[in-house]
């Protein structure tokens, strides 16, 4: 009985994949292999990096070139949707999609869209709200207009749904849009990312800090590898330091740069216990905002 999983246990994994730009089939193959390992290990939720199918679009891609990238990205998602149905493992990652509010007169820029895929279909989407200007993301993407929200995620060991929210990479630096998540009952914040090695310490501090601040688990999936990114063609190295943190700021699992899958068990009851013991939400001074 010593190995019995807690009733509200959720087993999660993150794949700090070396995303190969413009090679969706190769990236899908890597996800397929990861999902096979997830099934073997009883994983409920797999988190992929930001823009895992094709990475960032080529510089100044527009018109037919952008259409081709969007089609490749969409094909990769369709392939993974099939794998999710077959495996029973939920998946979160981000990819490209057309701006839903663009209209015919809008610039031809896609959104960076996070998707929560369940075995019975897509459950939720979230468009990255904060665009990283040093790599000219604001010129390549349309920003999302909504804050992260809480949705029903994969069921815990007792059959009850987890309460999950999604943010994307640079969103992690901006605390205000995340502040409503604890009151909405968030238990797990999922953050796909392409966060460079030069600021790896910032990534680690922010993942752990948001876990403590929001009193929830944070599953951050940061890619590995090297790529020329953005319209300015910056060559960036990525550390592959996917990180799973507890509501107490404990590191439950962390990538070592190899791109290997990391796995951790989340005892979701810890969220409620901590919020009762340290009632940050009750003690907050809303009048000072």
TrEMBL record:
- This protein's source sits in the domain of life called Bacteria
- List the Gene Ontology MF annotations in alphabetical order: 2-oxoglutaramate amidase activity
Where in this chain does the record put each CN hydrolase domain? 10-268
State the EC number(s): 3.5.1.111
The reply on keyword Hydrolase is yes
Q: What class of enzyme is it?
A: hydrolase
What keywords is this UniProt entry annotated with? Answer: Hydrolase
Q: Which Pfam family, any one, appears in the UniProt record?
A: CN_hydrolase
Task: List the protein's name.
Answer: 2-oxoglutaramate amidase
Give the organism the record lists.
Answer: Rohdeia mirabilis
């Amino acid at each position: 009985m010593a190995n019995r999983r807690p009733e509200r246990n959720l087993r999660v994994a993150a794949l700090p994949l070396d995303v190969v730009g413009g090679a969706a089939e190769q990236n899908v193959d890597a996800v397929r292999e990861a999902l096979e390992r997830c099934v073997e290990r009883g994983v409920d939720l797999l988190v992929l990096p930001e823009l895992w199918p094709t990475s960032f679009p080529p510089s100044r891609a527009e018109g037919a070139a952008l259409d081709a990238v969007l089609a490749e990205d969409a094909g990769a998602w369709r392939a993974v949707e099939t794998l999710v149905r077959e495996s029973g493992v939920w998946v979160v990652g981000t990819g490209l999609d057309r701006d839903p509010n663009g209209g015919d007169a809008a610039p031809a820029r896609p959104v960076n869209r996070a998707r929560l895929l369940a075995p019975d279909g897509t459950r939720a989407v979230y468009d990255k709200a904060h665009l990283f200007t040093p790599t000219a993301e604001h010129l390549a993407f349309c920003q999302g207009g909504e804050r992260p929200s809480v949705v029903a995620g994969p069921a815990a060991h007792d059959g009850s749904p987890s309460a999950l929210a999604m943010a994307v990479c640079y969103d992690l630096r901006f605390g205000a849009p995340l502040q409503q998540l604890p009151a909405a009952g968030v238990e797990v914040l999922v953050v796909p990312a392409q966060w460079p090695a030069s600021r790896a310490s910032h990534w680690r501090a922010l993942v752990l800090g948001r876990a403590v601040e929001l009193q929830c688990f944070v599953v951050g999936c940061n890619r590995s590898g090297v790529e020329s990114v953005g319209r300015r063609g910056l060559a960036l190295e990525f550390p592959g330091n996917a990180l799973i943190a507890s509501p107490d700021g404990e590191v439950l699992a962390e990538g070592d740069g190899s791109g290997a899958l990391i796995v951790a068990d989340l005892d979701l009851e810890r969220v409620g216990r901590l919020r009762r013991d340290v009632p940050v939400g009750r003690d907050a001074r809303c009048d000072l905002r």
